[in-house]
Amino acid sequence: MAMKLSLPEFGAGKWKKNGEKFWNVEAYTDAGWSAHKTHRRSTSCAVHFINGNFAYASSRTQRVVSLSSAESELHSRASGCSDAIFLRRCMQFLTGDEIEQWQWVDNSAARQLIERQGVGKVRHFSGKILWMQSLVLEKEVNVGQIGTQRNLSDIGTKPLAKQRLLVLLNQIGACDPETLEMIGEEEFKAFEERVFGQKTVKRVAKAIMRMALMWGLEPSLHVGAEGSSRYQRGLP
Fold it and tell me: What confidence tens digit (pLDDT) does each residue in 33-53 have?
């Protein structure tokens, strides 16, 4: 395989569009929580892009056993953020320009821990949390959330089905070195159609619920806890 690169555009990244600076570094991070059945340590993965072009990726086994999925995501985010800072500073040295850095993650609990101030009840993890919080507070790193299906770093956290693997390779920029055709093009189109169909169904369901509330319609049958248990036992 080869990686297809394109000419950088002002503020245009892989997911972030219309940035305030010409150059931007994006890092996608994810973790497979306690997936290894022997030592139960999680696997961290980070995929980095510079103005939408693949630059670097890593997949590492974490050194500690995480007690929750959010904790494993935080370890992965701290590791990926360190690599992204190194890439950003290399870009600053080469170009002499300010670089915008974005961190994308699909775990909302981990994102909320980073965006607030203080360690709360997770004191055993306070060092990395405070470090990430200081970066966000000083606006050195911007934090964003994406859907699990759009998280490209899922490629290095666990074994994946062939179709899912081809979709992620396509989005990362993998292509055939001889024909320069993008890998997984058909699988990605099918994925987009499936996601579009799911969004359409959700929009229709929300529209129906709003119309029902406007017309004052309510469910015609209310079954309480006692009635529900009697119904499950087959009683009248």
Answer: 988 888 899 999 999 999 999
Q: Does residue 195 share a domain with residue 140?
A: no
Prediction pTM value: 0.81
Structure tokens at 202: 């959700």
**Same domain assignment for residues 114 and 24:** yes
